[in-house]
Backbone:
């Protein structure tokens, strides 16, 4: 498949594909008779995996390390697994932090929902039970 089709199917721009290839994150593509890149469809699986690593915050240098180990074959499986396990722990820590943030947001949103409910209740409270604004209240003279 040509780089344009790979770009459409992967969601990466042609520029990004060429960049990833240049730095070693993607393997070099075969070339056709006219010198154009000709990718095998199996590269889509690798691009999706790289995208997941990127989404989870793995630095490019670690992705490059993983890609280099992958190129060396099965003898590097233990090292690749260790690299992914370390990254997984960082992702789990980040997910826990995000869960804490989500709880704060949910609590704040629930508070606003409570405010809305209080305003509705206020609107249905008989007017004589409502307090007048401070500026309109008559103040009594203090007796000493």
Residues:
């Amino acid at each position: 498949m040509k780089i344009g089709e790979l770009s459409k199917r992967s969601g990466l721009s042609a520029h990004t594909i060429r960049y990833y290839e240049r730095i070693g994150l993607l393997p070099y593509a075969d070339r056709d008779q006219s010198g154009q890149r000709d990718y095998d469809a199996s590269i889509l699986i690798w691009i999706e995996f790289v995208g997941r690593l990127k989404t989870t915050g793995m630095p490019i240098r670690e992705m490059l390390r993983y890609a280099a180990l992958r190129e060396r074959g099965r003898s590097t499986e233990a090292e690749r697994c260790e690299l992914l396990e370390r990254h997984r722990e960082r992702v789990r820590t980040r997910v826990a932090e995000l869960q804490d943030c989500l709880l704060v947001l949910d609590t704040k949103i629930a508070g606003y929902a409570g405010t809305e409910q209080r305003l509705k209740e206020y609107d249905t409270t008989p007017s004589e039970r409502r307090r007048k604004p401070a500026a309109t209240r008559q103040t009594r003279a203090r007796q000493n």
User: Anything to note?
Assistant: The CA atoms of residues 4 and 14 lie 7 Å apart. The chain has five helices and two strands. The first strand starts at residue 30 and ends at 31.
